[in-house]
UniProtKB/TrEMBL annotation:
Signal sequence segment: none
Domain DNA replication/recombination mediator RecO N-terminal: 9-80
Keywords recorded for this protein, A-Z: DNA damage, DNA recombination, DNA repair
Name of this protein: DNA repair protein RecO
Biological role: Involved in DNA repair and RecF pathway recombination.
UniProt record, GO biological process: DNA recombination; double-strand break repair
Similarity field: Belongs to the RecO family.
Organism, as annotated: Arthrobacter oryzae
Listed GO CC annotations: bacterial nucleoid
Length: 249
């Protein structure tokens, strides 16, 4: 006996992470939902000009969705726009690339970790809203988002006390594998020694101290971005490895 229609239908807020074509007129939409983690769902007829979904299921859009659970893919039956960030973001190439990096990171982090889904959802929607309003420089919004998303995923960096032994900081060496700034005893050979202002900027981006972040100089933003990218790459590779492991077993 099939379960009742009501039991298989659910409603949730979601941000569209990615879409790809399916058949003639449909799309598979990868969503980060507020309460159901990452969901892959089919939007039927969405590529027809007459589609009732309009542009509500484009990347970076936030919508109140109704879905039907399926065996492998769910089906989107209704979409009401909540945050029309997609238009403002897609109109500007710099913002678009930042939003794409954020949604890609969110997809990877929530693929293996369902538990922090709501926190990751709130973080991503907040960052997309901030990006669409140009609250801060796009690269600062990105680096702040990346540091906070990794922290929420369980990889909180330390920019004050030693990331390995906890010795009181500030310290002047950075190690992505060890988790941030490290003391002279823990410092692996060849660790970069970023400028004091760069370390302050990283701390400000992590805690959301925008007054400090907005006042930072370009040279320190560039150095911070390089360290964030290294930190992200190191930890996401571990995420992806654990994902492969999950799929094998
Ligand atoms: Zn140490």
């Amino acid at each position: 006996m099939a379960p009742s229609f009501a039991a298989r239908t659910y409603r949730d807020d979601a941000v569209v992470l990615r879409t790809h074509k399916l058949g003639e007129a449909d799309r598979i939409i990868t969503l980060l939902t507020k309460h159901h983690g990452q969901v892959r769902a089919v939007a039927k007829g969405v590529r027809r000009t007459s589609s009732r979904f309009g542009a509500r299921l484009e990347p970076f859009m936030v919508a109140d969705l109704q879905l039907i659970s399926g065996r492998s893919l769910d089906i989107v039956t209704q979409a009401v726009a909540k945050g029309a960030y997609g238009g403002a973001i897609a109109a500007d190439y710099g913002r678009y690339t930042v939003a794409a990096a954020m949604t890609e990171t969110a997809e990877k982090l929530t693929d293996v970790d369902g538990e922090s889904g709501t926190a990751q959802y709130n973080l991503l929607v907040g960052a997309l809203a901030s990006l669409s309003r140009s609250d801060h420089a796009p690269e600062l919004i990105l680096d702040s988002y990346l540091l906070r998303a990794l922290s929420t995923g369980g990889w909180a960096p330390s920019f004050t006390d030693c990331a390995r032994c906890g010795a009181a900081g500030p310290h002047n060496a950075f190690s992505a594998p060890l988790g941030g700034m490290v003391c002279p005893d823990c410092r692996p050979p060849g660790s970069p020694a970023p400028a004091v202002e760069t370390v302050l900027l990283l701390g400000a981006l992590l805690t959301g101290n925008w007054a400090t972040a907005d006042a930072s100089a370009t040279v320190h933003r560039r150095e911070a971005a390089g360290l964030v990218a290294g930190y992200l790459q190191w930890h996401l590779e571990r995420v992806l490895k654990s994902l492969k492991h999950v799929e094998r077993t």
